[in-house]
Design brief:
The chain is an alpha/beta fold and 226 residues long. It is built from seven helices and ten strands. The longest helix has 18 residues. Helix 2 runs parallel beside helix 4 and helix 3 packs across helix 4. Strands 6-7-8-3-9-10 form a six-stranded mixed sheet, sandwiched between helices. A four-stranded antiparallel sheet has the order 2-1-4-5, with helices on one face. A hairpin with a 2-residue loop joins strand 4 and strand 5. The structure holds adenosine-5'-diphosphate (2 copies). One of its GO terms (molecular function) is ATP hydrolysis activity. This is Sugar ABC transporter ATP-binding protein. Keywords: ATP-binding, Nucleotide-binding, Transport.
Amino acid sequence: VAAIALSGVTKVYADGTVAVDGVDLEVAEGEFVTLLGPTGCGKSTILRIVAGLETATSGEVWLGGRPVDEAGARDRRVSMVFQDFALYPHLTAGQNIAFPLHTEHVDDATIATQVAEVARLVGVEELLHRKPIQLSGGQRQRVAMARAIVRKPGALLLDEPLSNVDAAVRADLRAEISSITRTLHVGTLYVTHDQTEAMTMADRIAVMRRGRIEQIGSPSQVYSDP
Ligand code: ADP
Ligand code: ADP
């Protein structure tokens, strides 16, 4: 069963903009797929539809073999990391990471264990008592990643997570994000307009233009085709 599957997905916004135009896409369990394309080609709209934050005008979306509309945005099968990290500013890093577990009424001992586990995995175990404002962009990104994976989702959605991170740490984070998603064996859909990110991180790259996937394949396939 695919972690994420889209069939004939189209999104027409109220003003008539066709943001996504008949997209078919499957992300296997443990697979890392990037959506690569210029601003405005429909990448974020696809992520928001998969996350249940937006509904498709037509077409179907499945998470782990079940239609996404049965699930909604809070479904534990999917987590999303946003470009601006969207951390709660008044909570510590530890509280941010623990938040999705608190909303599910997980007991405190389990929360402490799971927070410690993912904090170690993303390398923020020394930063758990800091507020977001006391963290660098790269550290915020790690905390956002930890919060996204703490419920062990089947699908992970990353919307340009490195665009607000210093260039100096971007390469390290690229390597770490792909290593973490592989360790967790989570199906990942990663949005970027950066060819280097797509090339170095992805199992497959879906090249988008004007709401459509124009080409899809491994990095070497995509970059050897004229
Ligand atoms: P990308 O993530 O590739 O930059 P988006 O998915 O954000 O692209 O946007 C795709 C298209 O849909 C763009 O033309 C954008 O202006 C338009 N769009 C996005 N959100 C809305 C909205 N809420 N209402 C109308 N048009 C929108
Ligand atoms: P609080 O004052 O609510 O305990 P903290 O920032 O200390 O705020 O912790 C928030 C959450 O993160 C808690 O639920 C705790 O279980 C977890 N947490 C914080 N620090 C650690 C840590 N060093 N190891 C494991 N879990 C931690």
